[in-house]
Amino acid sequence: MKIQRQNKGEFGYPPYERKRVVLRTAAYFLISIAVFLLGYFSTGQKENLLTIVAVLGMLPASKSLVSVVMYFKIPKFSETDYQEISGQEGDVLMVYSLYMTSYRLNFPINCFAVRGNNLIGYTEFPDCDRAACEEHIQGILKQNSIKNMTIKVFHEKARFIERLNQLQALEAGKKDTEVLTLLCDISL
After folding, report:
1. Separation CA 132–CA 102 (nearest Å)
2. What whole-number distance in Å separates Cα of residue 170 and Cα of residue 92?
3. pTM for the whole thing?
4. Same structural domain for residues 97 and 155?
């Protein structure tokens, strides 16, 4: 069975990336352990050059373990919500299944849509602080010289779809793709 590659911003990305990161982390730890055991069994003692190599190999393994922990914190996004929303997107640019991180809070966002100077998002999770998310995105956009964006994150799917349909009538902006790429870049 071949696993289809998922890109950030596609619906199935977080579970796909979680599996990939777990496998990578396991490989890093196994390589470090194998190097240590090779040194130990070849010299008969722990104090050798391969022990130092094995210990240094634990640095990328430990860094990768942090990614594993973060990917396991991402909640499962609703496939029925995805099916319903993706059927309404039309020619508006959208990204799905983003888990945005900030210094204070994390924001699980089902999808973002951008058209002109309007960026809208939908989250099915009631504990997601919409105001803090909007403020965080506004700050990131300003840091990247993208100004005059109206940002709104919805908890109600019906209101999001209604606003998405309103965006269909607007003209596409020059920076629509850049905004969505930036959102993907600041997400897990």
Report:
1. 10
2. 9
3. 0.79
4. yes
